[in-house]
Write a structure and sequence with these properties.
By secondary structure, the protein is an alpha/beta fold. Helix content is 47%, strand content 18%. The chain contains 25 helices and 20 strands. The strands form six sheets. A six-stranded parallel beta sheet has the order 4-11-10-9-8-7. Strands 17-16-15-19-20 form a five-stranded mixed beta sheet, with helices on both faces. α12 packs antiparallel against α15 and α15 crosses α16. It starts with a strand and ends with a helix. It binds zinc ion.
Length: 546
């Protein structure tokens, strides 16, 4: 196996990819190098910036340099002793309509130049393709993919099998599941560049996850043309392991300065919001006064640093189990990224299934966006599937406390004392205590120490969607269980009336005896205990009368 996963968070992974020129760590960004016009030499990209790999275009090499890269070997030709990946010219087909080469030629050429990671000559679907055209691109790419395994002559090169289909998700699914049957080492999502240029990150979420759900999940996935640091966190979280960036050089040419939250024109900058070795010693004014060529190199170098530092932040977030928090932070850099994050709701069960269950850190819950995170989804599913063996007659619902685990809170201790003083032992055994809380909805007291039910911090008061979510979990629990009596403790200041009302309605519909008290009321512990005593007694009398 050429890919080994070391660490995971959401669908992201830190992994080791083994190639014939060495092992590289993912998530990995390949700067795009065009030997004909290259602002920063490949040697410097490795030695000064620390990039372990780069990508170049086999079609352009072949057209422009003919057999020279084959004779000298690609690594010597580029003067780069890291890992080299080659793209096939697929993007050129998309832009210029056709290329003067064949699939067989491009396969053979990539073997001759001794690339480490090679790409078949796929046929990009593009963004504006009709369905008929999209079907054709999927079929032809699959045909060429199958042919590869007849015509290749070397075993030491990793081959990339691109997934096509564009915005037609059923075609993406078909393309992915057929590609996945072939023995590729790596897969790629074909030509999402236009989707990204149009800021349709919600469509990108659909495309990536459709591919992901239909590909062998253990194989690395490359996202072609994903060159901007402001969307790395999103793409990595969705399970993209490899990226390439031409944007660092293209933007530099247009005097555009990358940041982790977007792009700024050089002339708009009064201060550099970056402390990379380039930006530390210069001011925007000095750079704008430079000759164009020098300015372009300066910006390309800064842009590379900006990409690199975001990749590192994302990796560290995976290590800490805080990728979701990082993703939320980044999604506030642009409304379309936030829209994309909201889109994850549709895929929350798939993401949950492949996310780690235990993490090195607790969760930060900021808003209802966090309701889609795997830990919340997992708790909801497990509670409703597994917490059904209790045949308790009464339920006490308590509001979340600042103290965690909840059973150590003053609120819970007050209740425990009142129950012990008022009820008989056999009656206390008939009572279930649950806390309603954000973001997990409902936490039975027996589970309050299970990760992450007490390892999280929540911004209170919760927003409306979160309150509605919690109310729905309470209603769901009452409808699933056989309680005869429910006592609800409200914390009006934090929760208002919504959860209380939902709970009361659910009880009325089911004929469950219901009461509520506010925790502001000093005598609530005694009142709850008396209410339960009387009603458990009534239940007992009812049973003996039967
Ligand atoms: Zn900088």
């Amino acid at each position: 196996m050429s890919f080994e996963v070391k660490d995971r968070d959401l669908l992201a992974r830190i992994g080791k990819l083994r190639t014939k020129s060495g092992v590289v760590e993912t998530p990995l960004l390949f700067p795009v190098v065009n030997p004909a016009v290259q602002p920063i030499s490949p040697k410097r990209i490795r030695e000064e910036f620390g990039f372990e790999a780069l990508i170049t275009n086999a079609y352009i090499l072949k057209k422009r340099f003919k057999m020279e890269p084959a004779e000298r070997g690609l690594h010597k030709f580029l003067d780069f002793n890291g890992v080299v990946m080659t793209d096939s010219g697929a993007y050129q087909i998309l832009v210029y309509g056709d290329v003067e080469t064949t699939s067989e030629e491009i396969v053979a050429y990539q073997e001759q130049i001794d690339t480490d990671i090679a790409t078949i000559l796929d046929w990009p679907t593009g963004w504006k393709a009709t369905r008929r055209h999209a079907e054709q691109t999927v079929e032809e790419t699959l045909k060429r993919a199958r042919e590869l395994f007849q015509i290749r002559t070397r075993e030491d090169i990793l081959w990339v099998g691109p997934v096509q289909g564009g915005r037609y998700l059923d075609l993406v699914a078909k393309s992915a599941s057929e590609m996945g049957k072939l023995p590729f080492h790596i897969h790629a999502l074909g030509s999402p560049t236009e989707v990204m240029e149009n800021y349709r990150f919600d469509v990108l979420v659909d495309m990536i996850l459709t591919a992901k759900m239909n590909l062998p999940i253990e194989r690395p996935l490359h996202l072609f043309g994903a060159g901007h640091p402001f969307m790395f966190a999103l793409a990595v979280a969705l399970g993209c392991d490899l990226f390439d960036s031409a944007a660092y050089a293209i933007y530099a040419k247009e005097s555009r300065y990358m940041t982790e939250t977007g792009t700024v024109r050089l002339e708009e900058l009064e201060y550099f919001p970056c402390a990379c070795p380039k930006c530390s010693s210069k001011t925007p004014k000095e750079i704008s006064e430079m000759p164009p060529k020098e300015r372009q190199v300066f910006l390309a170098e800064h842009n590379l640093y900006a990409c690199l530092s975001e990749i590192r932040r994302v990796k560290q977030a995976i290590r800490e189990g805080r990728l979701w928090e990082h993703l939320e932070l980044r999604s506030h850099g642009h409304p379309t990224l936030l829209q994309a994050l909201k889109r994850l709701k549709i895929y929350e069960e798939f993401i949950e299934k492949h996310s780690p269950t235990v993490k090195p850190s607790g969760l930060f819950f900021f808003s209802s966006l966090g309701l889609s995170r795997p830990e919340v989804v997992r708790h909801r599913v497990r509670l409703s599937e597994r917490f059904t063996h209790y045949e308790r007659e009464a339920l006490i619902l308590m509001p979340q406390t600042k103290t965690k685990p909840f059973h150590r809170s003053k609120l819970y201790k007050k209740l425990g004392k009142a129950l012990r003083n008022t009820l008989r032992m056999e009656d206390t055994a008939k009572i279930q205590v649950c806390f309603y809380e954000a973001p997990f909805g409902l936490v039975p007291i027996e589970l309050d120490e299970v990760y992450p039910l007490s390892q999280h911090e929540t911004a209170l008061p919760p927003d409306l969607e979160t309150i509605e979510y919690v109310a729905a979990q309470v209603v769901n629990h009452i409808s699933q269980q056989n309680y005869k009596i429910v006592a609800f403790l409200n914390n009006h200041e934090v929760w208002g009336e919504k959860v209380l009302k939902a709970c009361r309605d659910a009880c009325q519909n089911k004929g469950v005896i219901f009461t509520s008290f506010d925790i502001e009321m000093e005598e609530w512990p005694g009142l709850v205990a008396d209410f339960l005593k009387q009603n458990l007694e009534k239940q007992r009398r009812g049973r003996s009368a039967d």
